[in-house]
TrEMBL record:
GO MF terms, alphabetically ordered: hexuronate transmembrane transporter activity
Protein name in UniProt: Major facilitator superfamily (MFS) profile domain-containing protein
Family to which the UniProt record says this protein belongs: Belongs to the major facilitator superfamily. Phthalate permease family.
Primary location group: membrane
Transmembrane segments: 41-63, 70-90, 128-153, 159-184, 237-259, 265-286, 293-314, 326-346
Gene Ontology CC entries for this record: plasma membrane
Keyword Transmembrane helix (UniProt): yes
Record-linked PROSITE patterns: MFS
Membrane-topology descriptor: Multi-pass membrane protein
Gene3D superfamilies linked: MFS general substrate transporter like domains
Subcellular location: Cell inner membrane
Pfam families: MFS_1 (PF07690)
């Protein structure tokens, strides 16, 4: 029963990243049909990223006020509608507005997943739970190229956005027997299908700070003065551009640099995301293994994993040295693996 909550969160992350990566997979077609330059495409990506960044603290606050269940459903419906509305765009400006709206709504995706994991898993098991729900980000990015290319070949680029948005909408609201967040997600204390033993195991395993009065929250100033906050924020600030590049530019990179057509993009653009999935899962298991192997505490073991990932990220930085597209794909796969491995250790 405990893992049903993670399954719901993971599916939401899959569909959220599908909507996020639809524009990247469709980029070659969009640029041709709407006469969009590479620079204008970068503005579309920047609109998404800027809205996503600005809205993250707002989304976190809304989730705290409305609760995980209602808050996440609301944001998911919004990003689904905005993704579908992207099909109405007729220029790069329209795409930028639509993708900015999607980014603003999707800012709640990761905070909601972390919040749900903290509600459903005791502290000692949470790293594994977070690893599985984070898998959804790379699964969504992985299925976007083949799904979007299929929609474009069989219908149009507009249909790709409509399908992506519709899937998220169905997940959020639900049409039985579809697994739907709003219908099935409940806090452990309200879940009738849990045994008393399971409920006690979850609740008693929470850290003390999760059990204090929720009215006692840190102010923005207190957060900004917290060294632990900066210890997480600065590495994420330096590392996230790599993931943003992977999500937004791999299909277009293959198209522009190596001359891949749509079908070849569908065949290869998902591979780095598959390796990202592996890194996400392994990120939950490596720190405890390092603890046992090297006799260090959990914090030090996480730092070791982060350092290993940072060193291996040199690989994708060397892509420009090779003209063989398959070597480039291999290096991108290494980058996807180690980035998500590192990000997982910084996420909790």
């Amino acid at each position: 029963m405990v893992y049903e909550g993670v399954a719901l969160v993971t599916l939401g992350t899959v569909l959220g990243y599908l909507t996020r990566n639809t524009v990247a997979a469709a980029a070659p077609t969009l640029m041709e049909e709407l006469n969009i330059s590479t620079q204008q495409y970068s503005y579309i990506i920047a609109a998404y990223s800027a809205a996503y960044t600005v809205m993250q603290p707002v989304a976190g606050y809304v989730l705290d006020v409305l609760g995980t269940k209602i808050g996440y459903a609301m944001f998911a419906v919004l990003w689904a509608v905005f993704c579908g509305a992207t099909a109405l765009a007729g220029s790069w400006g329209g795409l930028a507005v639509a993708r900015g709206a999607v980014g603003a709504a999707e800012a709640a995706m990761i905070p909601a997943g972390l919040k749900a994991s903290s509600e459903w898993f005791p502290a000692k098991e949470r790293s594994i739970a977070v690893g599985y729900f984070n898998v959804g980000s790379s699964i969504g990015a992985m299925i976007a190229p083949p799904l979007v290319v299929w929609a474009i070949v069989m219908h149009s680029w507009q249909m790709a956005f409509i399908i992506s948005g519709a899937l998220s909408f169905i997940w959020a609201i639900g049409f039985p027997p579809v697994m739907a967040w709003l219908i099935f997600y409940k806090h452990p204390r309200d879940q009738k299908h849990l045994t008393d033993e399971e409920r006690d195991y979850i609740i008693n395993g929470q850290e003390a700070q999760h059990q204090v009065d929720t009215a006692k929250k840190m102010s923005v100033g207190q957060i900004l003065r917290n060294r632990q906050f900066w210890g997480i924020a600065l590495p994420r600030f330096l590392a996230e551009p790599a993931w943003g590049t992977f999500n937004a530019w791999i299909p277009l990179f293959m198209f522009k640099v190596y001359g891949f057509n749509l079908k070849e993009i569908a065949m290869f653009a998902w591979m780095p995301m598959l390796f990202a999935d592996l890194g996400c899962i392994l990120g939950g298991y490596l720190p405890p293994l390092f603890q046992r192997w090297f006799g260090v505490n959990l914090i030090v073991s996480r730092k070791m994993v982060v350092t290993l990932g940072a060193v291996l990220m040199i690989g994708p930085g060397m892509i420009g040295l090779f003209t063989n597209p398959y070597v480039a794909i291999m290096l991108l796969c290494i980058g996807g693996f180690v980035h998500i491995l590192t990000r997982h250790c910084l996420a909790h």
